Amino acid sequence: MQGFFSVVYEIVVGIPPGAVMTYGQIAQIAGNPRAARAVGYALRAVPEGADIPWHRVVNSRGEISSRKTLRGDDDRVLQRMLLESEGVVFNNLSRIDLKKYQLVPEEHPAL
User: How many Å apart are CA 63 and CA 109, to the nearest integer?
Assistant: First the structure.
């Protein structure tokens, strides 16, 4: 599983500020389209201090999913704050407009 986590981290590092990707998108790019949940596990396990923008990954509805850290903290408020600081706007249902903010890999071949 560690190899999969490394691939996930490489993909997430490529998400630019102000953009998001979904767990399913990352799983697809990583070569395992059914591993969206494993992407979540990988992001939960990001080592503290690592320069991996985990906050740029949201669910398929454009919502922030619960992300309990290994310490047991819930980082949803932090994630929203980080996204908003990059210019990402949430609607009144706390959703992100994926048509506007979702990174489309076909438009960014480096991913």
Answer: 25
